[in-house]
């Protein structure tokens, strides 16, 4: 297959590699440019009376040293990608909110009786206060930080070359990722290249840093990986080819 248009993938590693494989399978030239890397704590977490488990990222599952003590719990996830990872890990009851932290809180509150306790496994940086939202909705919650992210110091060599050479598509998975990517582009003295890029963001919230800089972005229909890739496919069809 002839390599297609370059697609710069800013997603945090290790998820970046999974997205790159999917993008490559679609006929594009996948260019990894993770804006950060997950550093896992490998914590040993016990249920401690929790009635359910909440996950806002698949990274939380991968960060655990042993998921055995939690496998009996029903799991609620922010999106289908994390839900798939939970099922593959062995959880039998998994529900995806197909949205953001607010949608996840509402999904959990509809499914559980008032007073139930939710264990939220999270990264050090959180997009919203899920535990606080759940408490407002009549549940109790405990948040355990099981991983953190380390910021990339610069663009990858391939990403720098792609931005310097001409137009490319950039996939944005989060607002923090967008802000970090823009900072790395500025630091590489490639700010002028931003006007030549086409951005596809996983949600309106993720696109906010782009809009702040006057940059336009195509928005995925749902805040999920498969919707982001569908938006990429749709854009390619409108442009005639990958």
From TrEMBL:
<comment type="function">
    <text>Catalyzes cyclization of the linear tetrapyrrole, hydroxymethylbilane, to the macrocyclic uroporphyrinogen III.</text>
</comment>
<dbReference type="InterPro" id="IPR039793">
    <property type="entry name" value="UROS/Hem4"/>
</dbReference>
<feature type="domain" description="Tetrapyrrole biosynthesis uroporphyrinogen III synthase">
    <location>
        <begin position="18"/>
        <end position="229"/>
    </location>
</feature>
<dbReference type="InterPro" id="IPR036108">
    <property type="entry name" value="4pyrrol_syn_uPrphyn_synt_sf"/>
</dbReference>
<dbReference type="InterPro" id="IPR003754">
    <property type="entry name" value="4pyrrol_synth_uPrphyn_synth"/>
</dbReference>
<protein>
    <recommendedName>
        <fullName>Uroporphyrinogen-III synthase</fullName>
        <ecNumber>4.2.1.75</ecNumber>
    </recommendedName>
</protein>
<dbReference type="GO" id="GO:0004852">
    <property type="term" value="F:uroporphyrinogen-III synthase activity"/>
</dbReference>
<comment type="pathway">
    <text>Porphyrin-containing compound metabolism; protoporphyrin-IX biosynthesis; coproporphyrinogen-III from 5-aminolevulinate: step 3/4.</text>
</comment>
<dbReference type="Pfam" id="PF02602">
    <property type="entry name" value="HEM4"/>
</dbReference>
<comment type="similarity">
    <text>Belongs to the uroporphyrinogen-III synthase family.</text>
</comment>
<keyword id="KW-0456">Lyase</keyword>
<keyword id="KW-0627">Porphyrin biosynthesis</keyword>
């Amino acid at each position: 297959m002839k390599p297609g248009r370059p697609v710069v993938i800013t997603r945090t590693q290790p998820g970046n590699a999974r997205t790159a494989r999917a993008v490559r399978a679609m006929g594009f030239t996948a260019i990894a440019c993770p804006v950060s890397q997950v550093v896992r704590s490998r914590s040993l977490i016990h249920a401690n009376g929790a009635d359910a488990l909440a996950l806002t990222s698949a990274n939380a599952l991968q960060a655990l040293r042993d998921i055995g003590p939690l496998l009996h719990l029903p799991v609620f996830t922010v999106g289908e990608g994390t839900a798939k990872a939970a099922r593959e890990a062995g959880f039998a009851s998994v529900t995806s909110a197909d949205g953001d932290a607010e949608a996840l809180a509402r999904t959990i509150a509809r499914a559980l009786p008032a007073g139930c306790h939710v264990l939220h496994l999270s990264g050090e940086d959180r997009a919203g206060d899920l535990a606080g939202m759940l408490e407002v909705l009549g549940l109790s919650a405990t948040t355990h930080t099981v991983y953190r992210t380390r910021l990339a110091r610069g663009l990858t060599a391939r990403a720098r070359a792609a931005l310097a050479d001409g137009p490319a598509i950039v996939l944005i998975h989060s607002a923090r990722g967008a802000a970090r990517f823009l900072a790395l582009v500025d630091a590489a003295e490639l700010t002028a290249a931003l006007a030549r890029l086409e951005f596809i963001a996983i949600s309106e919230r993720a696109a906010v840093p782009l809009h702040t800089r006057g940059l336009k972005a195509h928005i995925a229909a749902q805040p999920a990986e498969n919707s982001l890739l569908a938006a990429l496919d749709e854009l390619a069809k409108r442009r005639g080819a990958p």
